[in-house]
Design a protein that fits this description.
Blueprint (H helix, E strand, L loop, with lengths): L1 H28 L4 H27 L6 H35 L16 E5 L11 H10 L3 E8 L5 E3 L3 E2 L4 E3 L1 H4 L10 H6 L13 H5 L6 H8 L5 E6 L5 H10 L6 E5 L2 H10 L12 E6 L6 H7 L4 E5 L5 H9 L3 E5 L3 H10 L9 H8 L5 E4 L2 H13 L15
Helix pairs in contact: 1-2, 1-3, 2-3, 4-8
Protein name: GP-PDE domain-containing protein
Keywords: Signal
GO molecular function, one term: phosphoric diester hydrolase activity
Length: 407
């Protein structure tokens, strides 16, 4: 009698949990897509199997189901329900962003159906070749990228090098994980940098390790000369301090003004370029193209970009909404969405955006729905393949692209 009473108590508790889960899951089913539903089902199945398996073990063994055992089981069930609630909270929070991106125009009536979305290789083709390497940039050209993005630092000897490094936008260029040594690249000369070797175990590196081991840190001059005869645009991020003027001078020396764009999170760098080179083309566009980079755009991000004379605004992919893109274009500026490095993208897709893979076609389709003109991606081959199929009509876009901007 005692055992049946306790069993019924736990059964009722679990039934209530499942009722609550079913209601919540159904409420979000219209918003969530395959991966979210799969995760909910996985948690639900785990809860069912672990809870009843524990009960069956106790009963089959003929053990008396004590109040302590019941309490322990209830605690385990509560913990699992909390896990579900956390998942639902992520979905609910992400659905808020949808309000900013909703549009009455048919999905995929954007320019990329005409293959006009620009494909920019973020630091090159980093899953095939080392990031910020000559080989990586040439690989991007060979697969048909419209542009590549790279990072520039000014060494203490006056040489410009192409390198990303550890650190923040306010304090960049650290060698710790990138080269496995302490120090900052700003404190090195060109000869010293040439002797540095990249750390194949660096979490940022996605290329094969054997290629990382044989790679080196190139100078900006090497890179620009290597890509000059390709049709690609080169988007140079002025990463380190003091890079604006010497980079501008080198671009002019190599006669690549029409092929190079300048960008920076430090918007003062953009102002320096614009103050020095305010020239415009006959159509009114800036001859020297510049882009303001933003991680989390403030409300007045457009005013900031206009004040420094930017030609473009570059938004982090998950802050790229239709509302913001429309405002950028209305201000006669270009737009680009940039993606984080591999660890950041993996973190986002594992913990924040449950409906898309790590830069898969679903993610790219979701961002493209905003009408953004260019995507700076880590997997340009995936994006190029998608655009090629869409343009040829071989693969129709999904009527509802899943993604972190839930629709």
């Amino acid at each position: 009698m005692r055992r049946n009473c306790c069993y019924n108590k736990v059964t009722i508790f679990i039934a209530l949990c499942f009722s609550n889960m079913t209601i919540q899951a159904a409420a979000f089913a219209a918003l969530s897509r395959s991966k979210s539903v799969e995760k909910l089902c996985s948690i639900s199945t785990s809860l069912r199997s672990s809870s009843f398996a524990a009960l069956d073990t106790l009963i089959d063994a003929g053990s008396a189901v004590t109040s302590t055992a019941v309490d322990t089981l209830c605690t385990a069930v509560k913990d699992t329900v909390k896990s579900l609630a956390s998942t639902l909270q992520v979905i609910e929070c992400n659905s808020v962003l949808l309000v900013e991106t909703e549009t009455t125009t048919p999905p995929f009536q954007a320019s990329f159906l005409n293959n006009q979305v620009k494909v920019i290789g973020h630091r090159g083709s980093i899953y095939e070749e080392p990031e910020n390497s000559v080989e990586g940039f040439l690989a991007s050209a060979m697969i048909g990228c419209d542009a590549v993005e790279l990072d520039v630092f000014l060494l203490k000897c006056g040489t410009l090098v192409v390198f990303h490094g550890d650190g923040t936008d306010e304090s960049p260029g650290w060698l710790n994980d990138y080269c496995g040594i302490e120090g900052n690249i700003l404190d090195y000369t060109a000869d010293e940098v040439r002797k540095l070797r990249l750390n194949p175990d660096c979490k940022e590196f996605a290329a094969p390790k054997e290629k990382i081991l044989s790679s080196y840190i190139p100078t900006l001059r090497e890179v620009l000369k290597a890509v000059k005869d390709t049709p690609m645009t080169v988007k140079i991020e002025l990463k380190g301090p003091g890079t604006a003027l010497p980079t501008l001078m080198m671009v002019e020396e190599l006669q690549m003004v029409n092929q190079v764009h300048f960008s920076s999170f430090c918007h003062e760098n953009i102002k320096i370029i614009r103050d020095l080179r305010p020239e415009r083309n006959q159509n009114g566009s800036h001859r020297y193209k510049t882009g303001c980079l933003f991680v989390e755009p403030p409300e007045n991000f457009l005013d900031i970009a206009l004040e420094v004379g930017a030609s473009e605004v570059h938004l982090k992919y998950d802050t790229c909404t239709k509302e913001r893109i429309d405002a950028i274009h209305a201000a006669n500026m270009g737009s680009m969405a940039w993606f984080r490095g591999p660890p950041g993208m993996l973190e986002d897709t594992n913990s924040k955006y449950l409906d898309v893979g790590n830069e898969d076609e679903a993610m790219y389709q979701t961002v493209m729905r905003t009408g953004v003109e260019g995507l700076c991606v880590n997997r340009p081959n995936v994006l190029l393949s998608l655009l090629g199929r869409l343009a040829s009509g071989v693969s129709e876009p999904s009527p509802l692209a899943p993604g972190f901007l839930l629709e």
